[in-house]
Amino acid sequence: MPAPPDLTPLFQWYADHARDLPWRRPETTPWGVLVSEVMLQQTPVNRVLPAWHAWMERWPTPADLAGDTEAEAIRMWHRLGYPRRALRLHQCARALTERHDGAIPRDVGALLALPGIGAYTARAVAAFAYRQRQPVVDTNVRRVVARVVDGRPDGGATTAPGDLAAAERLLPDEPEQAARLSVAIMELGALVCTARNPDCGACPLSALCAWRASGRDLPEGPTRRPQRYAGTDRQVRGLIMAVLRDGAGPVDQDRIDVVWYDDAQRSRALACLVADGLAVRLHGDRYALPGANNSGAYH
Description:
By secondary structure, the protein is an all-alpha fold. The chain has 15 helices and 3 strands. α1 (8-17) crosses α11 (175-191), α2 runs antiparallel to α8 and α5 packs across α6.
């Protein structure tokens, strides 16, 4: 197996060009890092920034969130998308409070045992909060590694064991340097080595990039088909959730019925929210957010 390329130039690029994001600052707590990683899943940074600040101001520790209701967590999530993440963060905060006295564990295995924490998030928290040598692989990292090391125009659609191994081979042995390189690769993919318009002239790794050396072009069309939103069940669920979030208390079925014209699709979306624990059906065809003093809920 050939030796991995020397990514040293990336450190200086990161020092000069990295975005000043609050969860990257030294004073940010491990809880702040964990919250940011959950919020950033499938959500752009510019939408996460105000939500993260509001969340951390209201619930600066896991115990603060655990002491509040699921309904308030969902309300604070507002329109960030995929509101199950709010529910999982609330469940995670309770587990942290009950199992770890409110502290965020350092061990990846212990992080994985928390509700709603997957492999990527566990490694990201270990690397970015505790400066461990962990391969942290998202879409941007897969793309950079595929281009620089393998000469391919893009990485795969999901992270495979081979992606983790490839990323780990690039990391320095010293944990702090490894953690810094992990976030630098991620930032390079977000700002320079983008999917459709890579700025190779501004890339600190262009001289050793196998894809650039190959002279191959990007494939025509999008590398991945974008997910359709308009008219989907996801859109209808979002409309229903907005009604539940904005309501001062339980909401009558009539108020939900007006948000979407298709009865079957609306009923399906509502049933999905109930099944996911994001809504509770009460007596009299009324609905509410979970945990909001719903003494008349069906069980």
